[in-house]
Structure formats: C-alpha cells, structure tokens
Amino acid sequence: MCMPDIIVCYKWVIDSADIKIAPDSRELILDRVDYRISDYDRNAIEEAVRLQERYGGTVTAVTAGTPAAKKSLKDVLSRGPEKACFVWDPAFAELEPSQTAAILASVISSHLKYDLIICGEGSGDLYAQQVGPRLAENLGIPSAAFVSKITIEDGHVIAERKVEEGIEVVSMPLPALVTVLPEINTPRVPGLKDTLAAAKKPVLEIKGADLGQFKPCLQTVKVLGAKMERQGEKFGAEPSEIGRFIGALFKEGVIA
C-alpha cells in the first residue's frame, strides 16, 4: 500500500469581505482588513488530509509570505496537516506567481520529502492559476490542473480533471503535482480540540534571505475596484410596465 508524503501549498490572503472601494477613485481601501487562508487552498488542504486518511503517509503544509503570515500556521495545522513549513521575508509582501513558484521549489527541493504536491486552482487574491504549473516545471515533475478527483495506485496518481469536452482521466507517476477545483470536497471546520492540538505541531521556519534572490517576471502597476453603475429604474406590475421591462431587457442584450 502506498503511503505518500504529501505537500499542500497555501496562501494567506486578504479577506475580500473587508476590502472597501473609494467611490471617486476606485482605489482599494485596505487599512482595516483581516487575512485568511485562500478559499481555494482550503480545498487543497482538505484533499491532502483526506488522502492521508485513506492511504497513510504524511501531510506538510507550506506557505511563503511576510512575517505577519505566521498567524496562518495555527489555522492550517488545525485543519489536519501534521507539520508546516513557513518561508518568510518582509520582501514577500508583493510576490507574483513566478517568484512564489521559484521560492516554493527552492524550499521543497532542498528541505522536504514529497511524493505528491497539491495546490489550489488559484489564489483568492490574484487568481493567476500559475503557481501550481510553474512549481511543477521548476521541480521537473508532471502535473495536472483543474482536478476534481484524486486516487493513488501502484506509485501513480490518477486524476480526473475538468476540460471543456467533459472529464479527462490522467495517470502520472509519482512524484507529481495537481491543482484542485473547489468542487473536489467541502473543507472541514476545525473544532476546539483541533485548534489546541495545532499549537503543538512542528513548524520549520526558513528565512527568505537564506534562499537567494527571486526576480519578478510581472509588475502590478495598480489594482482598481470594478465600477458598477446602476440606474435604479423601477417597474410596476401593470401590463404596460411589464412590457417596458421586457423591452429594457432586449435593449440591454439580456435576452435576444
């Protein structure tokens, strides 16, 4: 029976519910925001733990971020992984996908054992969907994206992935990497016992300065909130008003 060493990667992101948008400039107001584990990564964490429950082995949660992201460790460890690896540096505040993938690859290849790496489909902030495939490329291992089901058999990972034509089933020799869709599972809610146990689990901390320099391939110039204009027009229940409402739908292209 295969007992894989599983790594699950996650990101500590701004809670979108706390983001405010300045109505005049559309600039994001981030002075009173909280952070949380990206929702997509919660599915990745849950899937890693479920695979461990099924096949045995180990689960290590890995993240890269600023020193403030250390607050995420108790949360992630309460969700099932038995240990974590935290890569931190004040300069990691604005990492873009190629940097994140390079940092994770450097740490994983030099400090951790792995058979399977699981990432979320994208992150809750940038949602670039690049870190997983880039990480696999940097490590030189096969990968599959948009995965909705995972099984492990005879040293291979069997992944069902969603494509435009339907469901594609692929088999990859371990070690391999998958990025998972939110529909793959429903993440568990940690209980008090889980939270208390998380404080006793081991954490490997690595300073970003010890890894070298990782130059960005992408520069974010500005992030603006979406502009939504609403006319707020009211329609009555009379036949004439219903006709006017249908006419408005045709005009806006909602119905053809």
Automatic annotation (TrEMBL):
Ranges for domain Electron transfer flavoprotein alpha/beta-subunit N-terminal: 25-215
Matches recorded under SMART domains: ETF
A Pfam family per the record: ETF
Cofactor needs: AMP
GO-annotated molecular function: electron transfer activity
Classification via CDD domains: ETF_beta (cd01714)
Assigned protein family: Belongs to the ETF beta-subunit/FixA family.
Protein name: Electron transfer flavoprotein small subunit
Organism lineage string: Bacteria, Bacillati, Bacillota, Clostridia, Eubacteriales
